Amino acid sequence: MRLAKTSEPDKPGAFSMSAPKILIIENEKILAVYIRKSLQKLGYTVFDILDSTEEAIKRVTETNPSLVLIDICLTGTVSSVQVADIIQNTFQIPVLFITDYSEHSRLNHNKFKEPFNYIIKPFSEKDLQIAVEIALYKHKIHKKLQAEQQRLLSIINSMGCAVVVTDINACIQIMNPEAQILTGWQENEVLGKYLVEVLTLVNKDTGENINDLVTQVIETNTVFRLPDNCILVTKEGTEIAIGDSVAPIRDNFGKVTGAVLILQNITHRKQTEAQLLHNAFYDGLTALPNRILFLDRLKQALEHCKRRQNYHFAVLFLDLDGFKGINDRFGHGMGDDFLVAIARRLESCLRSGDTVARFGGDEFAVLLEDIKDVSDAINVARRIQETLRLPIYLNGYQLLTTASIGIALSSNGYEEPRNLLRDADTAMYRAKEQGKANYIIFDERQN
User: Fold this and answer.
1) 3-state SS assignment for residue 288
2) What's the CATH code of the domain at 150?
3) How many CB atoms lie within 10 A of CB 66?
4) What's the pLDDT tens digit per position in 147-168?
5) Where would I find the Response regulatory domain in this sequence (predicted)?
6) Are 226 and 261 spatial neighbours (Cβ–Cβ below 8 Å)?
7) What is the average per-residue pLDDT within 216-232?
8) Region 379-388: what's the mean pLDDT?
């Protein structure tokens, strides 16, 4: 039975198109009236109060409230928890649970494990205001994140979510059009078939099939998030990165009757993440590792050196001689092309396990791993200088350069990567002072 209905909102909470609309589901009449008056006083619009859950979904469909306050202890054909799940998951409307301390302690419900998701009776007007504001704010942030995710998915092919519904035996009952597009299967081909016969999910890292998702969800009665590295193999054999969740389907009595899979193509998001990761560790011009990645590999080499007594490595710090003159004469565009050509030449001088990085401008660093002694580093330095002396032809011009190189060896007992790099830099400046086109091995006496 409905206790009250504010078809014409009372002042001072006069109706406003911008005022959040709130639906109250509470069977304690005095408390319900108190909540309504308090919310209206705070400027919210309370358009309805229900004392049971039976009409809740219908009213939510009709009015699309901004927030639903519901007593978690209400019973009926549909429980308040089930109604709340439908409101949150189907209509994407936030729910704030109302409970008392005894029920809160006794139930230990999962809903109470989420912070700011409930309010305990008795509560003050201030407590109510804070709880409502936090619930609305959380929902606003959640919607913003969802909108951004949908925007990224829309860039790919403007498809929405794919939905696959199974029965208690994990046999397919429904496959919506988006799921048919995503998987390559038509609904009439898969109805009644076991999910594992149709939907092939693979762990990209291990290569193993993920076959027990629905069984796990049905047995545990919990929502399962798809692994971040989940791959869908379509009917045609195409591999697509997917994400989202698998959730249990419950009847009016809370009994699990099947599962619903929500699948979203996250290929574009993965590509974007991979590109962002690449940008964080690689130079945008030359595609060489940058300072951050170089220091990380240098740190790993130091750790390796501590574990293996006979493991040695060296760092070469390079600065091109006369690069400023190329920029001044031919412009920065030509200078950038020149640096790219230099990067390729430096790579050609190294083994596959070594690292050459650009530190910015015309500065480069090289990490030579697992060398026998200083002679290996010297040989690489000479090879680099010989290679750089060869002319580079760009846009009809012949460009020449040399490099000053400083060498620092791991045998000096370094503990920090930056110290080794610092000493290689110091040796490089010594080489430049001695006439450029030269290399110097760092000696502690140079300090």
Assistant:
1) coil
2) 3.40.50.2300
3) 19
4) 764 553 343 233 367 888 899 9
5) 21-136
6) no
7) 88
8) 94
Residues 10 and 143 in one domain: yes
Joined tokens for residue 321: 């001689």
Amino acid identity, position 242? I
Range of the domain at 260: 162-267
**Quick one: pLDDT at residue 55?**
85
Cβ(176)–Cβ(160) under 8 Å?
Answer: no
Which pLDDT does position 15 carry in this prediction?
Answer: 41
Strands (E), 113-229: 118-121, 162-167, 172-175, 200-203, 224-225
Residues 4, 8, 12, 15, Cα dihedral to 10°: 120
Residue where the block lists tokens 């040399």: 402
Is residue 107 scored above 60 in pLDDT?
Answer: no
Residue 276, domain member (yes or no): no
Transcribe 171-202 into DSSP letters.
BEEEE-HHHHHHHS--HHHHTTSBHHHH-EEE
Q: How many residues does the chain have?
A: 447
Amino acid at 384: I
CA angle in degrees (0–180, nearest 5) for 258-259-260? 140
Mean pLDDT of 356-378: 93
Buried b (16+ CB within 10 A) or exposed e, 414-431: beebeebbbbbbbbbebb
277 belongs to a structural domain: no
Tokens of 54: 């039976």
Dist CA 145 CA 312 (whole Å): 48
